[in-house]
Specification:
Elements: H1 3-10, H2 12-21, H3 25-49, H4 80-89, H5 111-114, H6 117-132, H7 141-154, H8 159-163, H9 174-177, H10 191-204, H11 208-222, E1 232-233, H12 254-262, H13 268-275, E2 282-283, E3 293-294, H14 305-310, H15 324-331, H16 336-343, H17 347-363, E4 374-375
Helix pairs in contact: 1-6, 6-11, 7-11, 13-17
Bound molecules: 2-acetamido-2-deoxy-beta-D-glucopyranose (5 copies).
Region (Disordered): 51-74
Cofactor: heme b; Ca(2+)
Signal peptide: 1-21
């Protein structure tokens, strides 16, 4: 029996079972609520009280500027969904959600399913959970690859190019739809997940840009401790190859990395949060003599150990391979405070919150119909904020 059919048969039951299985869930709900509200208020107050020009990048005490709006919601959005995404990008509404209880209306090709945008995504979710979760309950190599694919599709967008009439690239599926992008050296190692994603796309008949971003967010919540990031679908696909040279390199300087991401409307603070995705990554091509070396000692768990280990602290097994680009940002005065804060006590909640905001922004780059998207977070598996032996080293699936 196919996994999708099993899940369809169980329907709501399996979703309820999951929530009962994690007794810490009610804590997480209140933590999410408690953590986001005060931050929202402070951000808004700061924006009102403090004029923009006093907040220079050189002033380490300057509060983080809330991000700018992008795409077709630069005016704050014209539809309820556009307004919601705008509030998330401004960090006045949470980027995580525990909304659950979705009842799948029918099998993938049924009329009932076709009438409900999120239905097909619930079926996809069942398939991805099976594909991304390893035997120990940690997330596996396909989850890691899906996270990386999400970055490498969405990251190929530039505000400066967009302002010059080249508003394409970004989260449009072109990494899998153009013949060109997958050949680029920085995309080496992604062929396997691209192949798999192409199979899923044909099977379920959804957009490639959506599927890549949905998979990247699904992979994160499939990892123990990972946040359940709010997930939107309805992007437009493109088979036009994105402009080359818009993704970060492992040997880039802090200056280059910060500028590269600022040109994607991603602040240094958000960049630090996004780089935490190296919590579950393994490298195969940066140093071919250490193929499979993880960037954090617990590559199957979405924890903050990556931040410690990049600083050279915490339990640091010799197998961990640290990227020079991560090391320079862990030390740069524009990013070091945030780096340390993610590694410290309460770092996990802080990071999950910030990663969610930053990833939603990344997943909307180049998307110019945000007002027309649909939120389908409710079909994702629930997060697992507690995981036995989460700190066990070098278990990768
Ligand atoms: C991906 O698919 C192509 C074409 O079907 C095949 O040539 C290639 O070996 C596959 N790559 C991987 C890594 O699975
Ligand atoms: C839906 O129908 C199409 C066309 O008959 C088929 O190719 C596809 O595999 C079906 N999808 C699922 C998920 O069963
Ligand atoms: C990064 O620098 C190292 C050491 O200089 C070098 O061996 C490696 O090829 C460089 N990698 C890339 C992608 O430029
Ligand atoms: C990581 O470093 C922080 C200090 O930055 C420390 O409080 C924490 O205990 C460290 N975590 C581990 C697992 O060593
Ligand atoms: C959004 O949807 C409306 C109604 O379906 C359509 O008229 C409009 O062109 C869409 N806008 C974009 C940017 O896709």
């Amino acid at each position: 029996m196919k996994v999708t059919n099993i899940l369809f048969g169980l329907g709501l039951l399996s979703i309820l079972e999951e929530s009962v299985a994690y007794p810490g869930m009610s804590n997480t709900i209140s933590e999410i609520k408690q953590r986001t509200l005060p931050k929202r208020q402070t951000l808004l107050q700061r924006r009102v009280v403090r004029p923009r020009q006093v907040e220079t990048a050189e002033d380490p005490e300057a509060p983080e500027e809330p991000g700018v709006l992008i795409g077709d919601i630069k005016d704050g959005g014209t539809t309820p969904i556009g307004k919601t995404v705008a509030r998330i990008l401004l960090e006045t509404e949470s980027g995580q959600s525990l909304e659950a209880g979705y009842q799948i209306p029918g099998p993938p090709n049924s009329t009932e399913c076709k009438e409900d945008t999120c239905c097909i995504w619930a079926h996809i979710s069942a398939e991805l959970t099976a594909a991304f979760r390893g035997p120990s309950g940690r997330c596996n190599k396909w989850a890691r690859a899906a996270v990386r694919l999400g970055f490498h599709d969405a990251g190929t967008w530039s505000q400066a190019l967009a302002d010059n009439g080249q508003d394409f690239g970004g989260a449009d599926g072109s990494i899998a739809l153009s013949a060109d992008e997958i050949q680029r050296p920085e995309n080496n190692g992604l062929q396997g997940i691209v192949n798999k994603t192409q199979v899923w796309q044909k099977k379920f008949g959804v957009g490639m840009g959506d599927l890549i971003q949905f998979s990247a967010q699904h992979a994160v919540v499939t990892c123990p401790l990972g946040p359940r990031i709010r997930t939107f679908v309805g992007r437009k696909d493109s088979s036009k190859a994105a402009v080359d040279g818009l993704l970060p390199g492992v040997n880039d300087s802090a200056d280059k990395l910060i500028k590269l991401f600022e040109d994607k409307t991603i602040s240094p603070h958000d960049l630090v949060a996004l780089l935490g995705a190296h919590t579950t990554s393994e490298q195969f091509f940066v140093d071919t003599e250490q193929k499979g070396a993880p960037q954090d000692g617990t590559p199957g768990v979405w924890d903050t150990l990556f931040y410690n280990q990049t600083l050279g602290t915490g339990p640091l097994p010799k197998e961990v391979f640290r990227f020079p680009s991560d090391i320079v940002l862990s030390k740069d005065p524009r990013t070091a405070d945030e780096w340390l804060s993610f590694s410290g006590p309460e770092g996990q909640n802080h990071w999950n919150e910030d990663y969610s905001y930053s990833y939603i922004r990344l997943s909307m780059l180049g998307v110019n119909n945000i007002n027309n998207l649909t939120e389908c977070t409710k079909v994702l598996p629930l997060p697992r904020p507690y995981f036995q032996d989460a700190g066990q080293l070098l278990v990768n699936e």
